[in-house]
Design brief:
- The chain is of the alpha+beta class.
- 23% of the residues lie in helices and 32% in strands.
- The strands form two sheets. Strands 1, 2, 3, 4, 5 and 6 form a six-stranded antiparallel beta sheet that branches. A five-stranded antiparallel beta sheet has the order 8-9-10-7-11.
Length: 244
């Protein structure tokens, strides 16, 4: 069973897909055995304000030895502890189903049942949106929003190249942005830039939204789709903030 991140399909923004996020957990390096390449599974779901900023994280982990257990501590470690980060890989529900079956769990429960194992909610502090950039949207638009999605883990050079191809990033660009893209959807415009942040293994995706219609649900589906693209490339989402 491979533990590489799910191979990304080269599209701008994929369908949102399942609403839960799935991860495979490897044994510790000194305990790894060729016959046991995966130790267990983690399932997560972010809770959000109506404007899509993150308010908290629900999660549950599973191993053949323990069954399902609430895992807020593990979820924090997945984003802050280098040793845990090394062991955790984003995956698809289909791959999680295969691993669950191979490890003796049988049929992976559907998502409504998996949510019943979310017993240790992790709140994530939020603040009112900061105002970055012009307060008024450009002519022809009634609202401007700026989001930042933070991610843990790192990207290899070939993964960055894959994102640049998928998002049709123009050659050149800014030094700070390693990959970028644009999407026009029924008069609404979305533009995004992927950047490194801090001095650790962390990335952020800055998304600027210009709305000319009342279809604000497109904002949620686009943010989710972009986040899923980066999960498919191996990054672990941490939180979604809003700056305008």
């Amino acid at each position: 069973m491979t533990t590489e991140p799910t191979r990304a399909v080269p599209v701008l923004v994929p369908d949102a897909g399942p609403s839960l996020d799935y991860y495979l957990v490897l044994p510790r390096r000194d305990e790894r055995d060729p016959a046991t390449t995966v130790e267990g599974i983690v399932v997560e779901e972010f809770t959000r304000h109506h404007d899509l900023t993150t308010t908290g994280l629900d999660s549950a982990g599973w191993t053949p030895e323990t069954g399902w257990w609430s895992s807020a501590t593990l979820s924090r470690g997945m984003r802050t502890d280098p040793e845990v980060l090394e062991r955790v890989f984003p995956t698809s529900r289909r791959k999680a189903e295969d691993v669950y079956r191979a490890l003796g769990g049988g049929q992976l429960p559907d998502e409504s049942v998996l949510r019943t194992h979310f017993l240790d909610h992790q709140p994530i502090a939020t603040a009112p949106p900061l105002r970055l950039g012009p307060a008024r949207p450009p002519a022809g638009f009634h609202e401007r929003r700026v989001y930042r999605v933070l991610f843990a883990k790192d990207l290899r050079a070939e993964q960055v190249a894959s994102l640049r191809t998928a998002w049709r990033t123009p050659t050149g660009g800014t030094v700070a942005s390693v990959a970028s893209g644009r999407l026009d959807e029924h008069g609404d415009q979305f533009a995004w830039d992927l950047r490194r942040v801090g001095h650790t293994l962390a990335w952020c995706l800055d998304v600027t939204v210009l709305l000319s219609t009342d279809a604000s649900e497109a904002v949620g589906s686009t943010l989710t789709g972009l986040t899923n693209v980066l999960r498919e490339h191996g990054l672990i989402p941490v939180t979604t903030e809003r700056f305008a």
